[in-house]
Amino acid sequence: MFPTTARQSGPHPYFKGNRRFILAAAALSISCGPFAHGQDTVLHSFTGTGDGALPVAQVLTLSGSTLYGATPQGGSNSDGVLFSVNTDGSNFTLLRTFSGATTDGSEPTGALSIIGSQIYGMTKAGGSFGAGAAYVMNLDGSGFTILHNFGTGGSSDGDFPVGSMTPSGSKLYGMTSLGGIGSKGTIFSMNPDGSGYTTLYSFTGGATSGVSPRDGTLAISGSMLYGMAFQGGSANNGIVFGMNLDGSGFTVLHSFTRAIDGSGPLGSLLLVGSQLYGLMPGGGPSVGGLAFSMNLDGSDFTQLHNFSGKGGTFPDGSLTLLGTKLFGTTSGGGANTDGTVFEMNLDGSDFTLLSSFTGQPGDGNDPEGSVTVSPDGSVLYGMTRTGGTSNDGTVFSVAIPAPEPASAGLIAYGALLMAGLRRRRQEARR
Predict the structure, then answer these.
(1) What's the whole-model pTM score?
(2) Is-contact 362 57, C-beta < 8 A?
(3) Which domains does the chain carry?
(4) In what helix (H) or strand (E) does residue 229 lie, and over which residues does it extend?
(5) Which of 311, 319, 393, 397 has the most crowded CB, counting CB atoms within 10 A?
(6) What is the per-residue DSSP string for 370-427?
(7) What pairing do the DSSP bridges indicate for beta strands 302-306 and 320-322?
(8) Mean pLDDT value across residues 222-250
């Protein structure tokens, strides 16, 4: 049994005699909060005709230590390029310079999908009918092949593809901004070799459909796909929709109303478990856009964060997940009104700016796409539409601040208390 002692009233003699140590330890513990957040690092500045320009709503795709991306403008023909660059900014390589010819495309759009050793993508224009094309090529840029030319006419095809193609099973799924019945856009599927092209759904507008999907990519879960359209719905401010992979069961899951929950979605939905997460580039209570979540059936629509002012405005892209954190960009706002990179928890709490762009020659401006996370979860990669040395945009990285262990402050606190205890013992021996 441990010996018992009478309870002592008032401050313990040790704490009473070591107040200055306790105060110092407390101060040190408080100072051991989150790390100060740094700015972005420019990995590459685009120069226009030489290597691409103005990456609008583009997303980088990471494979190993190499980033793959596109710019819709620039290159020797001003029709856009495909490129690769190492994650440290070295070895920037032009993989493809588009010409806009009937055997080629123009204005590459969205993120590149990497399957094995091949890259799949789309162009908004060019191709045989001038309405865009789907293509495939090897990672080194060789073997470029047109899989499908959009704009064949009638309701059997779409015009001007947007976003990226999503692989699922043995199919690729994507969207066009126009074409189909009523020329309001389509959802399609095809095989990776370009065969079996099928228009799964044609947008028709109105309260029960959408109009003109923009730069988003379809999210797929089981036998369902989910996406957003820029307009349509009950208030004509855009929708979230769900549909079976075979094109049946199209359902408007949520209609945006601008003032309450935003308008004009541009990006993609992020699927996390049984919930969808997304960004609205405008509208909302603060007018600067918002982040939201909802269940797969459209229920429990929740505003996670309202963007405004120095906290960033106009989140044009999509959210990216790492653990329990969401990351994204805003094209405006921040300390310099030139856009931001942010993080927050899945429930919208702990919103933090990781970087505010300056728009100076050594920095980027106006990030309109999404960010990509490094395999070890320590770095974000993205692009800005303008800024850089030639004001033609940049590829950038931002370090993700490592959370400081909660015990760090307590360790320092305990160390100071032990030092105080040793001092008291030394004084007692004198």
Answers:
(1) 0.86
(2) no
(3) 36-422 (2.130.10.10)
(4) strand 224-229
(5) 393
(6) --EE-TTSSEEEEEESEESTTSS-EEEEEEPPPPPPTHHHHHHHHHHHHHHHHHHHHH
(7) unpaired
(8) 98
